[in-house]
Amino acid sequence: MINNVTLIGRLTKDVELKYTPANQAVAQFTLAVNRTFKNANGERESDFINVVIWRQSAENFAKWAKKGALIGITGRIQTRNYENAQGQRVYMTEVIAENFQMLESRNQQQGQQQATQQQAKQPDPFSGGTPMNLNDDDLPF
Fold first, then answer.
1. Which of 51, 77, 62, 72 lies closest to 19 in space, CA to CA?
2. What does the alpha-carbon distance between residue 5 and residue 61 come to, in Å, rounded to a whole number?
3. In the 8-state DSSP scheme, what is residue 64?
4. For residues 101 and 141, which has the higher predicted lDDT (pLDDT)?
5. Maximum CA pair distance of the chain?
6. Judging by DSSP bridges, how do beta strands 16-19 and 89-102 pair with one another?
7. pLDDT tens readout for residues 33-84
8. For every residue of 96-132, which 3-state class applies, written as one string?
9. Contact status, residue 29 vs residue 51, Cβ threshold 8 Å
10. What does the radius of gyration of the chain's CA atoms come to, in whole angstroms?
11. Are 32 and 12 in contact (CB under 8 A)?
């Protein structure tokens, strides 16, 4: 049987590190992973995948990975269930991360965030203005 998962995505928020009663470190987080195709509107959608990481890896991950960071993980899919306060059975599927890799430096991540903020402030250079009048003779092909 094979149960391997490899994901590359961006961390949706800062990681919260917790400890079990047996003092085992555990961190849960969500990765936003882009789909390889675009929807009917031409937009790329993302899947938001729940991931759990344990022990020393969880402590290291919580220390280094921040919201927006590009992360690569390998692990396995696990399903579990529990009974909620209303007595209903709840099923969860999540990825148990066995390894992770930071795929960009903090400087790259901060630079990307600043560039995104700058782009949001700048007006679209192609909106408005006057249309160009071109004849077929003006085109080089």
1. 62
2. 18
3. H
4. 101
5. 79
6. unpaired
7. 999 888 888 888 999 999 999 999 999 999 999 999 999 999 999 999 999 9
8. EEEEEEECCCHHHHHHHHHHHHHHHHCCCCCCCCCCC
9. yes
10. 22
11. yes
